[in-house]
Amino acid sequence: MWFHGDSSNYGAAQVGVATSKTIDGDYSWTGNFKPFGNDSRDMTIWKDPDNGAAYLIYATNNNADFSIASLDDDYYTPNASLHTFPGVYWEAPGVFKIDGVYYLIFSRQDGWTPTDNFYMTSTSMAGPWSEATLLAPQYSYAYLTQNAYDIVIEGSEQTTYLYYGDHWSGNQLGSSTYSFHPATHDGETLSLHNTGAWTLDLATGQWDDLPFDSITAADSTTANTTLVDCEDGCAGGVAANMTSDTSFSFTYSGGSSGAKVLGIEYVYNGPKNKFLHLAVTVNGADAEGNALVETSRNTTVAQEVPFPVELASGDEVSMKLLDWDSSVFLIDGVKVYEDLR
Predict the structure, then answer these.
(1) Residue 263 CB-half CA count within 13 A
(2) 112-161 residue pLDDT tens
(3) Residue 191, number of CB atoms within 10 A of its CB
């Protein structure tokens, strides 16, 4: 097991290795060190499924450079520096190998703030590497995530490439979560599939988006004086302009009652690392908790935040911001999913 070993001020900048005969421990620490005497901060280890070769990919030179090194046969030690991208300030590395081509994923550094994720391709981990390509639409910031790890599900019917992303809460890191997206491959390009809810069959490898009922702002019961034109191509062409004095509301007309998850589609042009709280009421009664809505940092790419709630056909649902900060905040609509938990 390799890990980023550091001090609280990130001054140590090392990698660490621990070993165990079983995946669930107990582990013995073999030590922390600087690869080739160079510092290492954000990093990952990746093993080629075809030949068993393993690689360390890490940010170095005070985070300015991004390097790839091969490991020795027992995976304890880097034995050769294969390629370095100088002065790029990249982090969050990960690799997929698809049809003999390596896809190296990374993001630009910006503290705990989501940035756009990219990938490059090569037929060798030593390069040469292609130019960087966006993994998701520009300014979606990989749907407010940063690459953490990448997993291949080899099912009986298809292979699924699973992107495992950090969803940071920069001001309260302990409350950070994760987000999983299928990474789709069309034979040449790789992209994150944007989905609010999906299922994966680990045995077959097949995945699919969950069905949902859609309520656009145009179809909602929101006051007409609250509706404005949207800039993100929202369905219906209008969105609810949310302030401390306005609300978004709709009547649920789905066919089944029970546990649901609201996928609230929004844009919030707030400052970096800012979250707002959105309260939900059903028939005038407060639903438990609040939706924690992260800034999208623009009004042109919508994001989606989940909120679990019990609903029955005919229920009146209303949403209101609790701590509006005067930034533009628009709700495009709501998707209502069945809660399968």
Answers:
(1) 21
(2) 999 999 999 999 999 999 999 999 999 999 999 999 999 999 999 999 99
(3) 18
